[in-house]
Specification:
The structure is a homodimer. By secondary structure, chain A is of the alpha/beta class. Chain A has two domains: 6-54, RecR Domain 1 (Helicase, Ruva Protein, domain 3, Orthogonal Bundle), CATH 1.10.8.420; 67-170, Dna Topoisomerase Vi A Subunit, Chain: A, domain 2, CATH 3.40.1360. Chain A has helices at residues 6-16, 23-35, 38-54, 89-98, 125-134, 148-161, 186-194; strands at residues 56-57, 64-65, 82-86, 104-107, 139-142, 167-170. At the A-B interface, helix 1, helix 2, helix 3, strand 2 and helix 4 of A face helix 1, helix 2, helix 3, strand 2 and helix 4 of B.
Amino acid sequence: MSYNALPLTKLIEQFASLPGIGMKTAGRLAYYVLTLTKEQAEEFAHCITDAHQKIKNCSVCQSFTDSDVCNICSDTSRDKSTICVVESPRDVAAFERTREYKGFYHVLHGLISPMDGIGPEQLFVKELLLRVSNDDVKEVIMSTNPTVEGEATAIYLSKLLKPMGVKVSRLAYGIPVGGDLEFADEITLFKALENRNEI
Amino acid sequence: MSYNALPLTKLIEQFASLPGIGMKTAGRLAYYVLTLTKEQAEEFAHCITDAHQKIKNCSVCQSFTDSDVCNICSDTSRDKSTICVVESPRDVAAFERTREYKGFYHVLHGLISPMDGIGPEQLFVKELLLRVSNDDVKEVIMSTNPTVEGEATAIYLSKLLKPMGVKVSRLAYGIPVGGDLEFADEITLFKALENRNEI
């Protein structure tokens, strides 16, 4: 794209390397950045390096935090008996948005995927087992995604955790609230039927 | 969102301030940035400030460039007799992608819009008139968007340019190639019918 100046082309490529951003959107974003004031552009750039430098894994749950222990793990009002195991820090944010879950989390930072060469040793499994053995944990909720890797990881972890005397549960399958039955796949509909509740 | 660390929240807000990026996508992008290596994150931040510092308006056509005169304006093989007037530098990129237009451009950096308090004096109209009066320009193609503001700007400029002895033309209206007649609006379809060509 010789009709774009090099610094602009480079910025477009940076935006295009982000997930879900194609070349057209990247172009729109890059042109938008050029319309910002000098201070705004510098603030944007600073936020990227700043977040990248300051954010690290919580020493307890492995979620993202800028201190040693994250806000959730240092909240003594939460229920110590429950740990919700998730794939990524984004899943923690998703659960927090429900404002209903009051237990703690554990972030694996991935799922077991032999196809991609990812085994339990690449994930924060050891740290989870240590927490369960030390703390007063009564239940571990497997909240990995309902995919092949998510299921496999949930089953693998449950086999390690059950002998430690804790209850291991899995998120319920069913139709999403506000969804349309017509578009639900067969397995979801079957699970929804199977796990039906009396009203 | 107290469950996100402050630097992360700030980064999400920065992404969310970009056009067409909602809070969910912003979150996805910010979390992705945290998975980059230190070098990649710094390169991204650098590209933003670098593009913002180095990119300026071409002294001839007012499009974005990192030198005094842009690649297109300094290309002597192009057709000096034609100037294509567009709203923004992104439109220049769109025309260049056709690989068919060989003339020059002029970027107005906006459209006349009395509702938003934008008059001709806020746009690069003076510079266009100067170019038309000095150079060997034979035709000015009004390539502003087919909106109320785009039309008004095209008509305003044509009234200034015609007395200078140049041909002033407007992009053709019609059905977009690959489009579906069913979804074409009445005005577009009427224009396509009106401007039909013999085959």
